[in-house]
Amino acid sequence: MWPVLPDSLSVRVKERYRLWPPGVLGLLVVCLAAPASAGNFAVTPVRVYLAPRDRAAAITVTNSGDEELVMQADIFDWQQTPDGQDLLTLSEDLILSPPILKLAPRSRQVVRLISLIGPPKGQQRSYRMTVREIPEAKSSKEDLQLQIALAFSIPIFITPPAAKARLDCTLARVAPDAAKAVCQNTGTAAAHPTALQISNNAKENLASQDSGAYIFPGAQRSFDLKRKEGTIPQGKTRLVVSMSDGTSQRYDVTLGE
Hints:
This protein has no helices and 19 strands. It is an all-beta fold. Strands 2, 4, 6, 7, 9, 11 and 12 form a seven-stranded mixed β-sheet that branches.
């Protein structure tokens, strides 16, 4: 599941021995090399939306650290299985110019994402651009220690004017204090729910969960919602799904025992 991303992404490395888990960056590669030094890079935007007529988009990468950054970009065709699992395949539909970035300390570079294909017809096309740091051998007077190689992944969408997401969700009890929401996209563009919440007639928040999931046309995902204290009462319940565009969708259901 991909995380919810802000409009810009900034990454700092401060601790020499810290191993970061997967998260906002999408990928963190740890390798044996010279000691990691403090560094900072940022990328804007973290999502790229192209209209069918657009041939290129600008992406800005900033190196605010004290060492040169060398990074390489790859473009992947991004699809999903019916159960919402991501499938990534190297693609030549788009290219990044230049494909290898060399950023001097305290500098920024604007790169161009260029589309080499014609406009999609009917359904949105989706890609992911992965930009990863290329660790370069550096001499060190100290013993070999862990260095962190950074990478980030950016979703790219090419969307025809008529393509829209259509999310249909159901809710069922799985335990006295838990329920499972299943959301299916029957539209022609990706849906991006950012949070789910269930409440009762008194509008009391019974359970909620944040989400970074994309749900592609024809795919579905499930979400587990668990109440922190007490049980989820039976009867009329409302499921509210908040979307990344600021809208929300409401589903009225009846939970059994």
